[in-house]
Amino acid sequence: MPLAGEKIKVPSTVLSDEDKAALEEEIANFKSEDEDAKTTTTYVPLLLDDKVAHGHYDGYCKQSEFLIVSPAIPFLSDRFFPALWPLFHYLLWQDVSPNSLSASFSADEHWAPYEQANTAFARRIMDIYRPGDLIWVHDYHLLLVPKLLRLLVPDVYVGLFVHTPWPSSEVFRCLPRTYPSVL
Questions:
Q1: Other residues' Cβ atoms within 10 Å of the Cβ of residue 113
Q2: pTM of the model
Q3: Domain, as residue range, for 144
Q4: 35, 81, 168, 183: which has the highest count of C-beta atoms within 10 A?
Q5: Euclidean distance between CA atoms 170 and 62, whole angstroms
Q6: Is residue 111 domain-resident?
Q7: For the purposes of burial, counting CB atoms within 10 Å of the CB of 133, is it exposed (0-12), middle (13-18) or buried (19 or more)?
């Protein structure tokens, strides 16, 4: 039994099609207390595979892990450094360079789930999109979604709100991954 306030993680594999349909119906019928008679907000669930969700959020967004093995920097050895979260909070990895990374560098390992999750969001949006809709994307977890939407619908109205200041180009280049042209 979960403790008060404890989050319960339900593996996506245990949800039946009926469970998913019931969840989708509950969410579709949800009305926020902030909505008035003139406002209509559509809520649509997106169920990701557990490995994609974990690699996306816990991996690339929060802890794109790479192992530092450097006799010159012993206090860094066997530590993991996150990618996007610290980047958007101007927390950089001092004295860390690609030359000091071991062969176990795995930020790219979490890139695929990050890209898959963003693609899943863009596809789900396209399932319900109607011309003229305004699509509002929140935070660095979904940085690829606006570009993916533009590839699908070039004249789509899309906004991106990041809850922290956008890092300078010098800081952004500190990511241990070179982004493909979608960014």
A1: 22
A2: 0.74
A3: 42-172
A4: 81
A5: 20
A6: yes
A7: middle
Residue type, 10: V
The answer to the question of residue 37 being in a domain is no
CATH code where residue 87 lies: 3.40.50.2000
Output Rg (C-alpha) for the chain, integer angstroms: 19
Partners of 157 in the β-ladder: 134
Question: Which amino acid type is present at position 28?
Answer: A
Give the Cα separation of 170 and 180 in Å (integer): 18
In a domain, 18, yes or no: no
- HEC string of the chain equals CCCCCCCCCCCHHHCCHHHHHHHHHHHHCCCCCCCCCCCCCCCCCCCCCHHHHHHHHHHHHHCCCCEECCCCCHHHCCCECCCHHHHCCCCCCCCCCHHHECCCCCHHHHHHHHHHHHHHHHHHHHHHCCCCCEEEEECHHHCCHHHHHHHHCCCCEEEEECCCCCCCHHHHCCCCCCCCCCC
| Contact (Cβ atoms closer than 8 angstroms) between residue 94 and residue 175 | no
67 forms bridges with which residues in the sheet? 80
- State pLDDT tens for residues 46-93: 989 999 998 888 878 876 444 444 455 444 444 445 578 777 877 765
Share of the chain above pLDDT 70, in %: 71
